[in-house]
Amino acid sequence: MKKFVNLLILHVFLALTAVSCSSRKSADQFMLESQVAEARMASYGAEESMPVRPQDQLAPGYRLKISSGDDSNINGVFRIAYDGTLKLPYNIKVKAAGLTLSELKSKVIKAYAPFFKVTPSIALRVIDRSRYVEVAGLVEKPGHYLVKKSDPLDVVLAKAGGLKRPDYEDNSAVARFVRIEQLGKSRTVKLADYYAGATSLIPQWQGGDRIFFQSERAEIAEVSGGSSKYVQVIGQVRSPGDQLYQPGADFFHYLVAAGGPTDRADLERVAIIRNLNGKRRTLVFSVTDKKQPELRGGDVLLVYGDNATHFERSTGVGASIASMFTGIASLVLLAF
């Protein structure tokens, strides 16, 4: 029953992609993506013009104006640091990110209470909603930068001095992917897709985000020894990134969690990349196999495309070898 449901979900994804996608993006698709980007920019402008709502949470980078009629030394403008803390006069330091403005006000008053005979009168107001993000990896100037919620990736990258100039003798230094860690989740976006117009792949910045530019080869080295708590799904899926490992979950579970296959996905060739005793093993199977290999925490699940990219070829499994492995992949994995 479970496998039937998984197959049904997969068929729905395939039907949708078959109807809406082609090998090349149409003008309508690019227009839609442009409209999405414009809407995001408009929503940011609307948000900036509105006062902070009682339920809004403060984010790293927010700038606040604090005033007190009881002690002018407290008055001033202060910004929430990347780590979410807010440093105030008299060596007061409070955790501010994730709190509402009223919650932070209560926390600040409580922190200053020992300095006064009566409860101090303190007012707080948000005057800037820029957000701190960390830009790292293959960029010229890694560091923490202030960005607006809907700034495109290009703006963020420019603040970090642009992509690092590659050493052409070392192909691993060419940035081809950006990994975005945000709110406890991670996603990986192919830069070529972003610059081809798929700007909707990049989320809005929340503050405290980590934006890591990396090469294909570096990604393989990293994920081969990845956390056993996750399975990283990459290749021809709509939302590449880490998925929480669930014992017993099959390929279809992780495919659906990653947003389903793209129009280029070749589900006859799916690879598991596993770090075994310090060596990387790559095994290929097909979704039509009667018995599919069992996934483990720390595995990398690669969905090939109908025209293999450099990254897909770098796993060392070519199209001809893949067809030979399809029939025996399950048995080999059982011997791990």
How does the SSE layout of this entry go?
Blueprint (H helix, E strand, L loop, with lengths): L1 H19 L6 H23 L13 E6 L7 E4 L5 E4 L3 E4 L5 H12 L9 E7 L2 E7 L5 E5 L5 H7 L17 E6 L2 E6 H5 L13 E6 L1 H9 L5 E6 L5 E4 L6 H7 L7 E12 L2 E7 L14 E6 L4 H4 L5 H7 L3 H6 L2
Parallel strand pairs: 6-10, 11-15
Antiparallel strand pairs: 1-2, 1-5, 3-4, 6-7, 8-9, 8-10, 11-12, 13-14, 13-15
Helix pairs in contact: 1-7
Q: What does this protein look like?
A:
The chain has 336 residues and is α+β, with helices and mostly antiparallel strands. It folds into three domains: 26-53 and 129-214, Roll (Outer membrane lipoprotein wza fold like), CATH 3.10.560.10; 63-128, wza like domain (wza like fold), CATH 3.30.1950; 216-336, Roll (Outer membrane lipoprotein wza fold like). Helix content is 29%, strand content 27%. It contains ten helices and 15 strands. The protein has helices at 2-20, 27-49, 101-112, 153-159, 191-195, 216-224, 251-257, 310-313, 319-325, 329-334, and strands at residues 63-68, 76-79, 85-88, 92-95, 122-128, 131-137, 143-147, 177-182, 185-190, 209-214, 230-235, 241-244, 265-276, 279-285, 300-305. The chain has a five-stranded mixed sheet. It has a five-stranded mixed sheet with strand order 12-11-15-13-14, with helices on both faces. A three-stranded antiparallel sheet has the order 2-1-5, with helices on one face. Strand 1 and strand 2 form a beta hairpin. Helix 1 (2-20) packs across helix 7. The longest helix has 23 residues, at 27-49. The radius of gyration is 24 Å and the shape is elongated. The relative contact order is 0.11.
